[in-house]
Amino acid sequence: MARVFLHVGAHKTATSYLQGSFYANRKLLKSAGLCYPHIGPNNAHHALAGQWIKINDLPENFYGPRGPEGIWNDLIEKYADQPGTLFLSAENFTRCFPEKVDWADLAARLSAFDEIKIVYTMRRQVELVPSVWSQITKVNYQPSIWSFMHTVIDERRAKGVPVDHNMVYEELRQSFAPEQIHLLDYSDFRHHPGGVVGVFLDLMGVDLPIERMAPPSETEANISPDALALFVAGVVCDDNSQPPDPALTRYIETQLDEIVGPTRTLLARHEYARVSHRFQHGNQSLVEKVQRYQPGFTFDEGAPARRTGVSR
Fold it and tell me: What are the two backbone dihedrals, phi and then psi, of residue 169, each rounded to the nearest 5 degrees?
């Protein structure tokens, strides 16, 4: 029986750590009946989404003359008729701007497998929003936090990342049966004994002790800098065209640890309250929908942060 598990994000829910772990342990996983294929150019499967959206970090001519279609055809031909489980992971499948994946087309491609499971990992919005902002700032430049927050509230997205999990679920439901969709709460698997890797191994029924799995490198884990420290470093540098000096950001983070403590957020008090209120109803509605097909599912929105960001 051929099974496919497609992990579609969300961004900043330990996706890079998960992908790095499975990539580093491909041979071990294969012996346990799970295949995590190397597609390139990195250890995730972002190139698969190139069938529908532009992938900016792919090398020129990556796909070759056959294009993204060729990669999909090869995957289906190789794995759809073979026993075992194919695991694919790419958070850009759920990107919502400026382009979106055609879920109906994706469902048609995956229909070649006997069993399909779409896995979406959720994170509370008051954590997700600063983390996305931090990732953008770390890699490219420091976007205006004010315009960034307007987009979050008005359009329910953090740049191209959807912030409304209920919206993502409803889009998935248009092309997949509810039994084919599985949601995971980031706060849950952060405290799981095996972490995010252990949760996914359990979900896919892979009988492999987590102790045998080699961890990814710190670089592959892609941990974003503290968002508040990054913001302050950007103010000090007074240059939004490029990321702040990492050494300066680390120094400011150590100072904030002493002065403010670890429980802090980039969001100002009114922003924190607006984000919480903006998505609270949708989160509650989503839990009610999912529990019909995934008994016991919860989404912990957590307690308010003790320290919010600087007044802006």
Answer: -60, -45
